[in-house]
User: Fold this.
Amino acid sequence: MATEETQQSTEEKIKEAARKVFTRKGFAATRTRDIAEESGYNLALINYYFRSKEKLFEIVMFENIQHFVKGVLDIVTNETTELESKIEHLVQHYIEMLIANPGLPMFVLNTVQSDPEQFFKNTGINSENRPLHMVKQIRQMAEDGKMPPINPVHIYVNMMSLILFPFLGAPMIKHKGSMSDEQFNALMRERIILIPRWIKAMLQNG
Amino acid sequence: MATEETQQSTEEKIKEAARKVFTRKGFAATRTRDIAEESGYNLALINYYFRSKEKLFEIVMFENIQHFVKGVLDIVTNETTELESKIEHLVQHYIEMLIANPGLPMFVLNTVQSDPEQFFKNTGINSENRPLHMVKQIRQMAEDGKMPPINPVHIYVNMMSLILFPFLGAPMIKHKGSMSDEQFNALMRERIILIPRWIKAMLQNG
DNA sequence: TTTTGATTTAATCAAACGATTAAAAAATAT
DNA sequence: ATATTTTTTAATCGTTTGATTAAATCAAAA
Assistant:
C-alpha cells in the first residue's frame, strides 16, 4: 500500500485548501472546483477522499472550532491562577492565535448563525464539563462587592468584544486607517497589554 | 394607471423580503425563489421589478449601509457637543437601532469581506466629507495628556467593539446564558448606560 | 364596458454545480 | 519488472438555480 505519509499529506493539503476557501467565502459561495484549484489537485480527487462538499465542510468546521476553543479552556478552568493572571493569559493566547488565523472568528460566527442547533451539536462545546473556574472568580468578586453591581456576563462579553471584534472589522479598520497588514497586527499586539488594563479599569471604576 | 401606491408597496415588500433573506443567509445561499416565497409574491414578479438577483442585492445592500451609518454622522460631526455627550448619544442611538435590526452588523461585515473594493465604492462612506469632530476631540485629549499615551484608534475600536460585538455573537451569548430574545435585549439596553462609563474608565485609568 | 396595468401561472432555457464513472497515466512499493 | 496505489483526464448525469417568455387572470381606471 503506497505512501501512507503521502496519502495523509494530500488529504491534509485538500483540507487545508478547503479551510482557506470556506473561511474566505463561506459554504454556499464555495465551489468544490475552487477547493480543487486552491489545493492544486483536481475535482475528482476531492470526492475520492471526502465523499461530498458537506462532509468536507463538516470536517473543516469541526477542526476550526476545536482550534478556536483549544487552549482557552486550559486557561479558564485553571484552579490555581489568579483572575488577573487568567485574563492576561487569555488575551495573549487569543490575540496571538487570531493574528495567525484572522478569518477564524468570522467563520465561526457565520457557521453558528447559519445553523445554530447543528453547530452546538457538532462542536463539543457543551460536552466539556470542566468547571469554569474563571466564572466562579468573577461571580465571587461580584458577591464580595469588589466590582460594580452589574451582571457579570457583561465582563465576559466585553472581553470577547475587545479581543474578537477588531478581527471581524479588520477590513474596515484597515481601510479607514490606511493600514498594512503589518501595521494592523502591530496594533493588535498593543492590545495584548491594553485589554487587561481596560478590563481592570472597568472592574474598579465601571 | 392602476395603483401607484400598490406598485410602490409591492416593490417595497419585495425589497423588504429580500433584505430579510439576504441578511439571514447571505447572498450566495439566498435563492430568488426564497425571496419570492418570503415576499408572498412569485418568482416572475421579482424579475419584473428588479432585473436580477445582483441588482436587488445591490439595492438592499446600499440601503442597509445607509441605515447603518445614518444618524451616526450627525452625532460624530456635531461641533457643539462635548465628547462625553457624543459618546452617550452614539451608544444610545446604535444600540436602539441594533435591537431593531440585529442582523445588520453581520450583513455589513460579510458584505465588506466578500468584496471590499465594491463595498467602499458603492457606499458613500468616503464621500461624506464632513469633518469628524469627535476624532478631533479625542486627538485633542491625547495631545493634552488627558488620556493614557495610546493610539487613539483603540478608543474608536473599543467603542465599536463593545457596541457591535454582542449582536454579532448574539446566538452564542443567548445559547450560553439560555436567554430569550427579550432577556438579551434587556441586557443590551443595560449597556446603553454602561458602555459610556466603561469608555470613561478606560480614558482615565487605562 | 372597455382598457390598461399588475400579478399569476406554467413552462422552458441555459448555465452552474455537485457528483460519479471508466480508463489512462503516473508514482510507489514489493 | 510487476503489482498496487494514487492521481489525472475527460466525459457525463441529474439537479439546482437564475432568468425569460407567453398566455391567462385579476383589479382598477377611464
Observations:
- The first helix of chain B runs from residue 4 to 29.
- Chain B has a mean pLDDT of 90.
- Chain B has two domains: 4-61, 70-205.
